[in-house]
């Protein structure tokens, strides 16, 4: 029954969503979430300080930013299936090279190759794949894959830890490489082939878009384009994504220390931190079930306020508000992950989505790469005062979204947004 309801809500596209969601879970678990478990044993075995491993990982994020636009253009031309299949091979090769590393040069080279795979094989590529297949009707499928892949850390961290205990960190990397070839590659190979003519040309403002190939004939009209000039719109969205991803990565890295700064014990901080993942999934369920009926810009505005509200609670109440903060922060971050895919779709349209997504996310990837180091400096220097910086940045992200104007106010527009 649950699968039937999901399939109906996704417009009959549940199978591709499930394939992409499972493949994304593997890709995130074997790359972005890998250092949390393997960084320290990796550094110890290579005779390097742990920050060196994290620096190599930051380098991978910078490489992924550079690769993003080219990967997006390839998906616009060819569809996501061949690009994502190639990424499984690159992931596997990068993980094998990481397992063979004997010093810093091998470490950085392996992470650079993994950065190529991350730039062409994580959420932005999956979103572009769905837009190539379904055009303006891709909003619900985008939400669907984030619902599944939202458990990447829940699955990835225990699996990495088990592989580490059984085979060491090198064996863990080889195990993940094998999973890319034996599981990820077949999953992506089962995706539908994209029709080169699947994405329709942009419709005039206020007009209904023709249904893309593979979409249902009852697709709702396309939301009119933004009234904000396009250059300003690109700048505002880039700023929003960069600030949001900086905050998310900073807190993912320093959450226990930040909660301790308001009086929580280490045990409480770790326990509260465990609430963030489920809250992210809960936020995505909320978006999929209720907020999908409103314009994505409105849901993104509401969710961008969650982090600053959580910061206010921490500053006013201290440690007793830690659990409330984790729920607000996690739920907001979960919805904002979906906004990375849906906002560019409804504001710019489906034409050229992949390349545009790559350019929009380039500053965000660089900000994400700098977040652990930059926010760590702020935390060391200011302690509890770093919360003010985090809250202020959250308000900057909210202000960037509020500066975007549509031809019709999303809060009052009678037309439902594309799904």
What does this structure look like?
The structure is a single chain. The protein is 75% helix and 0% strand. With 419 residues, it is mostly helical. The chain has two domains: 181 residues, MFS general substrate transporter like domains (Growth Hormone, Chain: A), CATH 1.20.1250; 173 residues, Growth Hormone, Chain: A, CATH 1.20.1250.20. Helix 5 runs antiparallel to helix 7 and helix 10 runs parallel beside helix 16. The longest helix has 38 residues. The chain is globular, with a radius of gyration of 21 Å. The C terminus is likely disordered.
Compose a concise summary of this entry:
The protein has 419 residues and is mainly α.
Helical percent range?
A: over 70%
Overall average pLDDT? 81
What is the CATH topology of the largest domain?
A: Growth Hormone, Chain: A
Q: What profile does the largest beta sheet have? A: none
Contiguous helical run count: 17
Oligomerization: single chain
Give the SSE string: HHHHHHHHHHHHHHHHH
CATH superfamily of the largest domain: MFS general substrate transporter like domains
CATH class of the largest domain, please?
Answer: Mainly Alpha
How many strand units? 0
- Return residue spans where pLDDT drops below 50 for at least 5 consecutive residues: 199-224, 409-419
- Computed CA radius of gyration, to the nearest angstrom: 21 Å
Provide the β-strand percentage band.
under 5%
Termini separation = 21 Å
Provide the structure class.
Answer: mainly alpha
Integer count of domains? 2
The general outline is globular
Would you identify the CATH architecture of the largest domain?
Answer: Up-down Bundle
Biased composition (Low complexity): 205-222
GO molecular function, one term: transmembrane transporter activity
Keywords: Cell membrane, Membrane, Transmembrane, Transmembrane helix
Transmembrane segments: 53-71, 83-102, 108-130, 142-163, 169-191, 232-252, 258-283, 304-328, 385-404
């Amino acid at each position: 029954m649950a699968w039937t309801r999901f399939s109906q809500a996704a417009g009959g596209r549940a199978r591709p969503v499930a394939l992409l969601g499972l493949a994304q879970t593997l890709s995130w678990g074997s790359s972005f979430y890998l250092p949390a478990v393997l960084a320290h044993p990796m550094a110890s075995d290579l005779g390097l300080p742990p920050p060196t491993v994290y620096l190599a990982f930051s380098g991978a994020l910078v490489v992924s930013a550079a690769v993003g636009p080219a990967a997006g253009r390839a998906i616009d031309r060819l569809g996501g299936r061949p690009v994502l299949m190639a990424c499984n091979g690159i992931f596997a090769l990068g993980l094998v090279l990481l397992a063979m590393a004997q010093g810093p040069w091998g470490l950085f080279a392996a992470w650079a190759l993994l950065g190529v795979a991350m730039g062409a094989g994580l959420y932005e590529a999956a979103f572009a794949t769905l837009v190539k297949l379904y055009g303006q009707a891709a909003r619900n499928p985008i939400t669907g894959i984030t619902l599944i892949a939202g458990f990447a850390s829940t699955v990835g961290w225990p699996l990495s830890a088990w592989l580490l205990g059984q085979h060491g960190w090198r064996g863990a990397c080889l195990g993940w490489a094998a999973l890319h070839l034996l599981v990820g590659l077949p999953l992506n190979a089962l995706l539908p082939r994209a029709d080169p003519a699947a994405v329709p040309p942009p419709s005039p403002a206020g007009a209904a878009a023709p249904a893309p190939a593979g979409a249902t004939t009852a697709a709702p009209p396309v939301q009119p384009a933004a009234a904000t000039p396009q250059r300003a719109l690109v700048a505002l969205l880039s700023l929003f994504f960069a600030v949001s991803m900086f905050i998310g990565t900073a807190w993912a890295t320093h959450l226990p220390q930040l909660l301790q700064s308001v009086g929580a014990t280490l045990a409480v901080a770790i326990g509260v931190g465990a609430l963030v993942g489920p809250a992210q999934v809960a936020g995505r369920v909320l978006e999929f079930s209720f907020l999908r009926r409103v314009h994505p810009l409105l849901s993104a505005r509401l969710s961008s306020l969650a982090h600053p509200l959580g910061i206010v609670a921490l500053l006013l109440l201290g440690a007793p508000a830690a659990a409330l903060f984790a729920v607000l922060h996690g739920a907001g971050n979960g919805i904002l992950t979906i906004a990375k895919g849906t906002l560019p779709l409804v504001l710019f349209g489906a034409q050229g989505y992949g390349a545009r997504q790559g350019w929009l996310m380039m500053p965000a990837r660089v900000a994400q790469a700098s977040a652990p180091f930059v926010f760590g400096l702020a935390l060391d220097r200011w302690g509890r005062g770093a919360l003010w910086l985090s809250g202020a940045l959250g308000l900057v992200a909210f202000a960037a979204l509020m500066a975007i104007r549509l031809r019709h106010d999303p809060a009052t527009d009678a037309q439902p947004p594309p799904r």
